[in-house]
Amino acid sequence: MPLAFDPEALPALGSDSHLPAVAAANIAPAAIRERFGAPPAWEPETKVERRFVDRAAAAASVLIPLVLRQELTVLLTQRTDHLTDHPSQISFPGGRAETSDADAVATALREAYEEIGLEASHVEVLGSLPTYTTGTGFVVTPVVGLVRPVFDLKPDPFEVAEVFEVPLAWLMDPSHHQRHAVEVGGVKREFLSIPWPGADARGQPRHYFIWGATAAMLRNLYRFLSA
Predict the structure, then answer these.
(1) Any idea where the domains of the chain sit in the sequence?
(2) Cβ contact 216:52 at 8 Å
(3) The model scores a pTM over 0.85
(4) Rounded CA gap, 102 and 118, in Å?
(5) In Å, how far are 6, 91, 141, 161 from 88, measured between CA atoms?
(6) Distance (Å, whole) CA 181 – CA 12
(7) What CATH number belongs to 7-226?
(8) d(C-alpha 227, C-alpha 224), whole Å
(9) Among the four residues 13, 14, 78, 177, which has the most C-beta atoms within 10 Å?
(10) Mean pLDDT per 10-residue run, the chain (227 residues)?
């Protein structure tokens, strides 16, 4: 579904540099395991986007893959530009639930395998965040897991244009979270972005614009880890 606006062209209304970054000790693998084992009292910042399509809600799951590098990274995908839902956007691997899936975790692991070839045997599932309902009508369960290298990814070329990793520390620093607003069809829409000045698979500098549902779920992860 093509967007009625270019999110990257919209000015940032401000960042959240007044909020502290998650401390390095709290984004170590052992600390995140402990946090999911005994979750604190907390509330997600955003749970439901303003709907802009008229269709029945559908259950879906994504995997938030925390890769066990020297410092944790988050594995993300760039969707191809011809997809019906969220074309060209940066996303977590995931998708719509199927009746054969035992639960939301099974959906996330199946979709991650089908989409990028990530074997479930490489994933240590830690738990899930509260559901996030997108403007396109998907009720998404974000499943968080630690991913053990070395893995051999095989992205589906129909769905995935690129797979890349971003340091978790960068994403868990609200000074990198930008706020935007746009009016479409007389309705104001607000969203977050987390731009990342990274490099592509050839090592060439590249600007990645993480926004919308992906940025919002990362923000909810920030709230969970900093609670």
Answers:
(1) 7-226
(2) no
(3) yes
(4) 19
(5) 12, 9, 21, 8
(6) 8
(7) 3.90.79.10
(8) 5
(9) 177
(10) 74 93 97 97 92 82 98 94 64 96 98 97 98 93 97 93 96 97 81 92 89 96 97
